[in-house]
Amino acid sequence: MTRLNIGVDVGGTNTDAVAVRGRQVLAEFKHPTSSDVLSGVIGSIRALLERSGIEAGQVDTIMIGTTHFTNAVVEAKHLARTAAIRLAGSATKAIPPMLDWPPRLRRVVDGGSYILGGGYEFDGRPIVPLDEAEIRGVASRLREEAIGAAAVTSVFGPVNASDEERTAELLAAEHPEMAVSLSTRIGRMGLIERENATILNSSLRPLADRIVNAFQQAIADLGIEAPMYLSQNDGTLMGAEQTRLYPVSTFASGPTNSMRGAATLSGLSDCAVIDVGGTTTDIGILRSGFPREAPMSIDIGGVRTNFRMPDLVSVGIGGGSIVRTGESLSVGPDSVGYELTTRALVFGGDVLTATDIAVAAGLARIGDPSLVAHLDEAVVAQAMAVIKAAIAETLDVMKTSRDPIPVVLVGGGSILVDDDIPGASSVTRPAHAGVANAIGAALSQVGAQIDRVIALGGTTRQAALDAISEDARARCVEAGAEAETIRVVDVDEVPLAYLPSNAVRMSLRVVGDLSQETRG
């Protein structure tokens, strides 16, 4: 029998929950996002079960997209002091770890920096041999100083990960309680950005343990015995144990869930997705049903990183955006957020919002339309023009050519946008578009990605590709995928002309369905 999944996604305004059997949406519910996030997630699941009549014992899997870890970095709260261990010899001392971090965040996270022997040249030759005694000494010092997290980064680690792996073994032997993250498992080429991502990940590890435990306990308290998965920022799932190891993989999972939900609901695999929420509108591009990845470094809380993230552009326009009239009318970027249902005019409030404008323009019937009947038609028309222009301009930024492309509109705030979008060849508004984010979470697959530099001098391109594919498939199975369902969804090859031995950077991504055994 087809499994019954519950998908939950946390937004700035609402936390959405859906119950899905196969691709059939059985029930949906919106719950105001709580300040602590957790109670909003649990509240949405409880309300979903109560209103749909679904019993807790019927649930097979729960998938959650959460903002816990993004919020922790942005707010510089609940982060662990982390030691940055760089394997580089004397090659990189001019730029120490965390040099360009925001001072407020660095004060919280910085647990000391250590530039030790090890690392590789661009052609795979060791810079200097790994000094194991030096690493043991650092581990002992960190244990004495009660530093519970460490980030290990090797120069040109993607060429050869052995120094990082051996360092992790030595640290574990001397300081077993310490959470250690390796850059070759998190970031890509680019030492500083990869190191930054790894430090952030390690600083989040203790919080990840607490959050996963809290979610599992709360779900158990609801009487649900199903396994729990969290959404990653590439549109796939990871299990509870993987979340404990790689919490940074949840960054931007909300917009990614919306894009995956849009692909499922619309049946389109190559298009633009415009996700209009309560505070912002996120626009991204789907390629083969998955979000196009950002090609450059991504700023997280003021820190440059280079792990996989969806290529998104956000504009500060949503259903709760505040509209200011006068000589120069503006919409957003500030928003009433989760207070929309009490502060917007149509709900008896005293703040003119974008939702009020949409109701006055006849695009939606929400709240009490009579409460906005007094709005000047010229003001309404001008506000709608501002919204359309901002979204059209953002869509144009995301396109790779001047040709119109198909557009899928999702999100609870999609009522703000009419079907006449400049740059769109067609506009699709699928059923359940308001909870596309939760549907994307509920229907997500398991994935894995390998990003590696390969010297083709002693092998063939196909042999190298086969080896990477096998490694990615193994990681995907380890993450909980059914081996027979795994498929390659993206391959990227970049020749590196400045490296010897006919080097090429290969990136390969695979996805697969959640295995029946893993799903309990």
3D architecture notes:
This protein is α/β, with parallel strands linked by helices and 520 residues long. Helix content is 32%, strand content 26%. The chain is built from 13 helices and 23 strands. Strands 3-2-1-4-9-10-21-23-22 form a 9-stranded mixed beta sheet, with helices on both faces. Strands 11, 12, 13, 16, 19 and 20 form a 6-stranded mixed beta sheet that branches. A 4-stranded parallel beta sheet has the order 6-5-7-8, sandwiched between helices. Helix 2 (68-75) crosses helix 6 and helix 4 (132-144) packs across helix 5 (162-174). 50% of the residues are buried. The mean pLDDT is 86.
Average predicted confidence as pLDDT: 86
Strand content: 25-35%
State the separation between the terminal residues, measured CA to CA: 13 Å
Strand order of the largest sheet: 3-2-1-4-9-10-21-23-22
Estimate the global geometry from the Cα principal axes. globular
- Computed CA radius of gyration, to the nearest angstrom: 24 Å
Low-confidence blocks of residues: none
Largest pleated sheet: 9 strands, mixed
Look at the helices and sheets and give the structural class. Answer: alpha/beta
The helix content, as a percent range, equals: 25-40%
- With helices defined by DSSP (H or I, 4 residues minimum), what is the helix count? 13
Q: How are the SSEs placed, and which strands pair?
A:
Layout: E1 4-10, E2 14-21, E3 24-32, H1 38-52, E4 61-65, H2 68-75, E5 82-87, H3 103-109, E6 110-116, H4 132-144, E7 149-154, H5 162-174, E8 179-182, H6 191-221, E9 228-231, E10 236-239, H7 240-245, H8 253-266, E11 271-276, E12 281-287, E13 290-291, E14 298-300, E15 303-305, E16 312-315, E17 321-324, E18 330-335, H9 340-343, H10 354-360, H11 377-398, E19 405-410, E20 424-428, H12 436-442, E21 445-455, H13 461-478, E22 487-495, E23 503-512
Parallel strand pairs: 1-4, 4-9, 5-6, 5-7, 7-8, 10-21, 11-19, 19-20
Antiparallel strand pairs: 1-2, 2-3, 9-10, 11-12, 12-13, 12-16, 14-15, 17-18, 21-23, 22-23
Helix pairs in contact: 2-6, 4-5, 8-12, 10-11
